[in-house]
Records
---
Amino acid sequence: MTQTLFDKIWDSHVIIDLGGGSALIAIDRIFLHERTGAAALKSMAEAGRKLVDPARVFAVMDHIVDTRPGRGDGTLMKGGEAFITETRSACREAGITLFDVNDPDQGITHVISPDLGIVLPGLTLIAPDSHTCTQGAFGALAWGIGSSEAEHAMATGTLRVSKPKTMRVSYAGQLQPGVTAKDMILTLLARYGAGGGAGHIIEFAGDAVRALDMEARMTLCNMATEFAAFSGIIAPDKVTFEYLAGRRFAPDPLPDWTDLFSDVSARFDSEIRIDATEISPMVSWGTSPGQTIAVNASVPVDADQKALNYMGLEPGQMIADTPINVAFIGSCTNSRLSDLRRAAAIVRGRKIADGVLALVVPGSSAVKRAAEAEGLDRIFTDAGFQWRMSGCSLCFYAGGESFPAGSRVISSTNRNFEGRQGPGIRTHIASPEVVAASALAGRIAAP
């Protein structure tokens, strides 16, 4: 019987079919962060439960940790330091590998797991973070969970999961110059809505996907959760294998993963096809990632009034004429070395517009070091950007650092919900290239 890539991984991990569309699934990797990790580990300890295999569990300080230079355990979030210190103590007690605040391998979960070869093709990987789907770019079954599920998985090595339906999203042809993986996923969201993938795992396929490097594939899979999907996944290939070779936690030699693909005659529950040659640089106008248009387009005349009121926009308004206050490059979507290189190429030798606050937050300490070795940090700082330490900070508002009230932010992040980056903050999501160009222009602009 022919199978999809997802079916092959699912079947190889089913311990028992529980009926009703659910199964008990074996879990290969578990990733924790300081916002929820301590709670799960503390709950396990209080119940007298131990980790079934500490070697398969990893933790990192990324969500609450400060990104300002010279950071320590202190944060601007009230009570934030306790999250960090308690997670550190719990990880030591449990024997878990922890990438601490100033560890050389510290960074955002979905950046460092691939960087270190923790995620591998064919594995199941979970983390209490909805953007765990990022790691499906490696042909892994990776998805976000809650703290109680993390506790169950750490104690048993298993998790009860309802099997999602399958959807294939194929991008035919090749992208135009200046168009990115971020624009690919934003185009999908704009055309089919933020709920278009509900109940499905999305396999991204087609010529345009195969032409992407691994970092771009991660960007594509990262926003599968914005499509309401269970996760996203891409069949591993030579590009994947070459990326993983020699990584810290990757096996040597690498196993043979060449059978991890959807069979030619495999059937999906749903199919979407997009002509990649028609995709343009994109930017969101509203308060949902699905409320997105091309940078050279105007706000829809039938746009949702509530979203317009929050964003301070009018129907028919050209989005590229919209002034910005802040430009932010960072997050698990677009803070990898290739993202920083492309943005730096745009700002090199130029200055950000007067009155614009601009920041770059690398996705990991390793990315930061590599960028500095290439001089990218100097390009950004010479242009007027702040150069930060790695972490999730300012991607979402957790009660700590924020932008000035009422700011309009052009951001390489993945969500533009009301208050996502702070109370009253208006966020427009776009590629790092659009963010860089907008920082220079002082308004939303195409690269």
---
Amino acid sequence: MEKAFTLIQTVATAGLFSAVSFWYGFMFGRESARKELSDLIEDLRRGNSSSTSPHS
């Protein structure tokens, strides 16, 4: 019974670590994408305000 308990502990710890690392990875990726989009939007605004013809 002791081995089964430690196996359950190991699986639970691995699952918890996986969930936490997934959450941090998701949040970091989301923040990184937000910053990248923000920079892209600023570049487009600057490009559109300085030129009269839109780029397609």
---
Amino acid sequence: MAGVDFLLFEQPTGYAIFKVKLQNDNIGSRLKDVQESINDLSNFSKLVELQSFAPFKGAAQALENANDISEGLVSDYLKSIIELNIPKSKSKDQINLGISDKQLGPSIKEFFPYIDCISNEIVQDLLRGIRFHGEKLLKNLNEGDLERAQLGLGHAYSRSKVKFSVQKNDNHIIQSIALLDQLDKDINTYSMRVKEWYGWHFPELAKIVNDNHTYAKLVLNIKDKSNLSDDNLHEIASLVNDDSNLAQKIIDMAKISMGQDISNDDMENILTFAKRTDSISNYRINLFNYLNDKMHLVAPNLSELIGEVVGARLISHAGSLTNLSKQAASTVQILGAEKALFRALKTKGNTPKYGLIYHSSFIGKASPKNKGRISRYLANKCSIASRIDNFSDDANNIFGKVLKQQVEDRLEFYNTGKSPMKNSDAIKEALKLNGGASDLIESSNKEEKKDKKEKSEKKEKKDKKEKKEKKEKKDKKEKKRKAEDEGEEKKDKKKKKKSKD
């Protein structure tokens, strides 16, 4: 294997080109003595020599070049440095350039065909030595300059990679839906404890009121049942959706309740816990409203199609809206049913028809035999909606409305047989509703006309070809028949001649 001629060293302060004076061998490169010799400046300086050092003009240029390097691109600045410091050899031999990142190799080769990029173990050892002795090998650098530049570039590079957007940020959706599920579990647990605890004092209340949040509010208002009278009718009615009959029933049951009396200390603890349950329930309502607003902002079409909660669960399970938009429709269909899928594959049973999308109202409306069909169709539309939400600049729910209408039409088609709207017609309708999309509509109409024209031309060519083939077959049959007739006539003549003789 040919040795390394030059080394490209990227660092926060600029680019450095080193010339390799002595070539290392692969054999023995992993030996302890060889590895330790790299840490010795006197030994390492015999291996490499600084050819050129080109510093960056500022932090912005450093960040720009760092982004290019991470994506495997050669910036104009790096291109000019390589062009000036690694001249084309007079002989036909290739120049070997050692680089740290393999992705950068093809880009350099594209601009400089006479350079072969190498990123093997020897190159990495040499670059490690340059990194270790950087301050002494590079000129005009003070102690601590490299550390400060690394820290500044690291922070800037991290900020640029995060790509945070205030308007379209699905991280809050993922956290909100996870917290919503946790709150539902906690509220159910707390409500059960409040009912059990307060039930020793007023057991009949749990049978009259089923809603957990309403029960906690009533506990805070009623407190000791002995104090409840007809004067409290309006207060109780305001807590049970202004149902005066239900409020009167609560008051009547409190008068004849079988519950035991309770001390002030016990009642105070019950009320404290009921107050905490009530506050968590109120926060759950506010969180749900926040999630709805966030979903309509980040994924309006998906929210319109399948609902805010189910859409948020899909985004959370996929990891992000971008990941969801990259999923195939068949994957979206069974998202959330991975255990059932792998169990079915292992046991060679029937695979699941739906995952998280089962909670959609469309699956509930479908008949049992059509649930699998509508789930497949709905997953297809969810995949389209998520891609529109993720990649469109103008966020609106117009496409979601049209896609939802398509799913409803498909449900009606399964029940009545009425033909649903075609996809092309649905997209055209959405573009018309979107406004300012006349160019797209015209282009789609032109493409449709072009397709129709091409189809008609193909059909004409096919008809002509079939007619030609039929005519050829007919001519062959006629020729064959004529030949057979002529053969029979000749035979008849021969027989006549024989009979005369």
---
Amino acid sequence: MASAAALGPADEVPANGVVRPATGRGGAAAALVERSSSPGGLALLSPYHTHRAGDPLDLVALAQQVQKADEFIRANATNKLMVIAEQIQHLQEQARKVLEDAHRDADLHHVACNIVKKPGNIYYLYKRESGQQYFSIISPKEWGTSCPHDFLGAYKLQHDLSWTPYEDIEKHDAKINIVDKLLSQPAALPPSTEPTFQGLTQESGL
């Protein structure tokens, strides 16, 4: 068995027992396990041979791996944050649209009208020379050339007392029909809690 005095300079353990980390391109450092001259309370003749990292190029590879991991983690976090930012922007746009529609509906409910408005009917908005706006059940087509006032638009009163512009009635009614069909059918969702992509694959033709 070799004596401790016969060990070369390369076999000596640093005074602080810590191996200096290798640094790769970009400044990423690969942290190595600290050396111990007495692991488990047993003195070693040559800690270098039991703790050496091997080929010096391995340290560079370790540093490059750490740098690459940092870059991938940052890229993944950036992508996820971009998705969240897009969702926030979409929600903000939806909130703005809800507020605009609410203000419009409130204003329309305060428009002058001599009849009791019933959900499901279409009402036509006119404006007098005095500036007063009012609702009528007579359309500009029914008035013909004798329409007495400026026509501003037509709206359908929904059952939730919201107003739908005439040009959006068909699209809005189609959505309501779809919801009504879904509500009239028994629950079709599978009891399984496992994720399924069956609907997506069928729609996309995969």
